Every structure is written in structure tokens, then in C-alpha cells.
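Q: Is it fine to ask for two folds in a single conversation?
A: Yes, each is treated on its own. Send the first.
Q: Here.
A: Result:
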Amino acid sequence: MRIDLHTHSTASDGTDTPAELVARAAAAGLDVVALTDHDTVGGHAEAAAALPEGLTLVPGAELSCRVDGAGLHMLAYLFDPAEPELARERELVRDDRVPRAKAMVRKLQEIGVPVTWEQVARIAGDGSVGRPHVASALVELGVVDSVSDAFTPAWLGNGGRAYAEKHELDPFDAVRLVKAAGGVTVFAHPLAVKRGAVVPESVIADLAAAGLDGIEVDHMDHDAPTRARLRALAAELELLPTGSSDYHGTRKTVRIGEYTTDPEIYGEITRRATGAFPVPGAGGDRQA
């Protein structure tokens, strides 16, 4: 089995619609794909309806979190999307995305970059606006060569010149809320240092003690030594090690399915979840 547990669609900051994403996943030879848009489950229904036969959809989300001044992302899988407390927190984060993006546009204008809110809004379309849309505007203007180049302290990286904060969950609250909604949590790209400050391993240990299920090990922003360290840390803390592309369509160079999760790890994730079911193709609707 080939399993990719971290992808994004136009429901947040990817460039493929949910239907296009599952078609691309099938064409890439995947057996399982998770749709984990930022702080939203808005793409799940379209993705499920378009599922090709032989492909299974894992409904999920990537939750925006912050602890001790460091931003981090928490992947949540197979939770009940109607659970009210978690749904309320996702809404608070989404509501803060537009003011945050506008603040980043203002900061860029103040340092001489001719970006406009209209440009960013056009790029975002109907998706949940975020930093990648602002980064794409910088690419359009020729300010940076790629979206990844914009996620640095010089531009939009955590604490960078044009960085702006938004409402974010405490990661310990995120673990608690997802667990209460029957879901499973995996710390996304925990040592992606090129994005800015990362949390110390002691915080990962504390999250593990609080119920964190896994950490994303195989990811484009982790080099080989980092992956080895994270795999050892996962074993030490009894966390599930996952691998995922973090696919965003043409917004990033990584290909869907470029990094994958071991089938035994995927099986354990599904065994732990009680809030929702994986959705089998074609177009199944077996989602709690």
C-alpha cells in the first residue's frame, strides 16, 4: 500500500480542487490519501464524492498552533467534524486568517513590496487565505523565486519582517480537543527549521505524555539526519512515525505521494480513531 497522510486542496492553500486532488492521488498510484486542509473540513465532501475506485480518503485537518512563541501545525485525523468545541476553535482560526493576511500585506508594502490585498485575494480564490497565498503573490512579483523562499525570516517566516500573528491553538489543547472528538493527532514537520523557530524536543515529549499519537518524520523539510533523529525520538517516546508529501499542488515542488506512511502505522491510526471512518472509493459516504 502507498499512503500519503498530508495534502492540501483549494479549500485552504492548495492549487488542486478536492476532486482534482483525489484524481491526482489515484494517478500517482496511492491507495490512501488524507485531505488535511488548514483549519477546515470544507473540502471533504467534494473529495469523497469524487473518489476513484481503489482509493481511500482519510478526512483530516491541519490545525494552527503556537507554544512559547513557536508556531507549529498539528495534523488531526478521523475526528468528528461536528464536535462543537473543536469546530468552534477551527472557526476562530479561520476568522482570523483574513485580518492576518491583510496585516502581512501592509507590512510588505511598508518595506517597499508592491503587493496588494486584491492580488492575494485573487490567488486565494474561495480557499481559506493564508501565508502561502501571500507567498505566491511575492513569486508573481518576482520578489522571491519560490513559495518556500518566502517562508524565511527575511519575509513571511515565523518572526520575519512581514510576519503577522493570528489566533492559534495551544497544542496541548489541540491534542485534548481532537482526542475528545475521537481523532488522532500527529505533529506535522516538527523540525522544519527552514520555516523558523521550532519547539524543543522536551515539548514533543510533553505532548506525547499528554496524548499526542505521532510525529511526521519523512517530509520534504527534514534532511536525512533530521529524519533519523525524529525516527529515534518516535521510538523513544512511543510515537507513531509518519511520512507525507504535504502536497500543495503547483504551490510547492513536492509531488503527491513523494513521501509515504508505513501501512502498519496507518492501520494503528485507524484503530485508534473513533470519530470518523476512512472513506472508500468510489465516492463513498461512510463518514461519521
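Q: Second one now.
A: Result:
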Amino acid sequence: MSSPIHRRGKGFTAIAASTVLALTGCGAHIDTAGSATTTTVNRCGEPVEYTVPQRAVVYEGGSADKLFALGLADRVHGYVLPPANPPVSESPWAADYERVEFLSDDLLNRELVVDARADFVVAGWNSGFSDTRGITPEILDTLGIQSFMHAESCFNYPGHPERHTPFEGLFVDLERLGQIFGVSDRASTVIEQYRQRVDAVRAQAPTGTPTKVFLYDSGTDKPFTAARQVPPNDIIRFAGGVNIFGEVDARWSGVSWEAVVAAAPEVIIILSYRDAPAQSKIDFLKSHPATAALPAVVNNKFFVLDYNEAISSPRNIDGLEKFAAYLREFRSGR
């Protein structure tokens, strides 16, 4: 287990770099022979000194996929995957999941991390890390366990808020993880590839009045939806739509059926969970008195977005490309 993380003063500083990096194929190989490499990277606005992790534990598919996209499967000990997550066999990195240990299908907790002898934990704030469950970066610091939080989740992190648009948060995470693991060149290449894919979608986005889009996550008494600070908002706007709750300065938020009806969405994105299939949500919207007459429902304009395409993950780019293709077809058929 690595030594405890040391706080630094304000600012962003990279320290020693004795790491020798060789990239072959899609993997990243790190040679840390000699003196230990450390680097200082922001963790939700707080500069933290890291040593190169050897035994990472990751929470949910988004965390795992970020490390796998950087070729770091050999540095991941195991993953925690609650029931909402789709099967790992559906991941572009299914082979990497096979190489690491499945630790739990429960929520992230301190005992699990300690038992796994983790030296690095990746999760989001209030999505993995939690005050109420007693697993926070500060608590892990006292245990000598390094931690990393998704930038997308940091805007309401107590004491160290940090704001990024959701897709920029993804790119920031890949850049910072690249620094921590000594694979910055690999990270730069991956980020550039993702940016090019996003730019290609934006270049093809329909012009004119944006299509009104509502994302339905869950909820019957009142709906739970995507607001401004989560990836679906960028997916919708980059594709050429407008999120009817994109002005709400939050991540995932409860709203009212009255507000949904007033907005009259033309397309509804259904967020698909493994334990809450999309079809059951569609059936509910078709039968609910408040939503049955919505334009999207009447015209059967539903798009299913995979859970791991909606949380902060490299798969956000896949979700964007798929939804953009759907929206272009929708617009052409008007």
C-alpha cells in the first residue's frame, strides 16, 4: 500500500518524472524502476500528490472504462458494479474486465476497499464516495489509500467545488489519470480521438430550431431526469437538440410532471438500467395520464440510452453518436 497522500498549496504542479513509458498496441506499459514517481494533480479543485497506483479499485463501469481506455488494466485489481450497471460482457473493454476481479454488486464501502488492499479508488462524488456511507477521499487519505473523483461530479463537492461541462469533465479525467499513471502521451492520443468524434457529430447536427428532448431516468410520483451537469445534457445539445431541463444547474434532478407537460418534448430518451428495463418505462409513459398525450409519446419517439453511455465514461461518445444518428433521422422525417 502506498504512503498517505500529501496536500499541496494552491496551484497545479507536476513534480518528478522518472517514469519511462512505452506504448505498444492498445496497452500502456510503465517502468517505475528507481525512485518512486510522484505527481500533483487536482482532485475536485484540491491539489493532491499521487504515487503511481499498483492496485486500483474502481466503482461502476465509467471508472473502469476510463482506466481501460488508457491501457491500464494491469493496474486495476478489481471493480464494484451495482445491479443498475449493464453486463460487462457488453463493454468495448470486456476482455479487460475478464482480467480483473469482480469485487461486489453492492455500493462502494470502506471495508471492501480495505479488504481489497487497494492503493487507489476511482468513483464519483455522491456516486460511490459518500459522507453518509463513510467513504470519502478524506477518510481514505487517513488510511493511506489514494482516491480520484470524476470531474463531472465535483461542482457541488464540499470545500473544493470544480466546474466542467460534462464532456470536458471526461477529457479532464483522462488527462489527470494519464498524469497519475505516467501515461500522459496515451491520454492525449485518446482525448484527441474522442474530440474528433465529437466534432464530427457537431458538424452534422441539424440546423434550425433544436428538437426538444426529455430524458426519463425513473420516478412515478415525479420524474427523475438529467440536468445541466451530466453527460446526457451534452449528448443532447451536441446532437442538435435541447434538453428541456438543461437550465437546471444540477446533475440528476427530480422535476414535476407539470413541467414536462408544459415543455412538450418531441423526443424522449429512456435511460436503461439492467434492473429497470427501458420497455417498462416506455409502457409507464404511455399509460400515465400526464404523459400519454406528449408529442414524443403520441408519435412513439423514444430513444434508449445505455446506463454506461449516460454516466461519465468514454462510452459517452458512443451514446452521442447513436443519439445524433437517431435525431438526424427524426429531423429528416418531420
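Q: Anything structural to flag on that second result?
A: Two points. The first strand starts at residue 20 and ends at 24. The chain has a mean pLDDT of 89.
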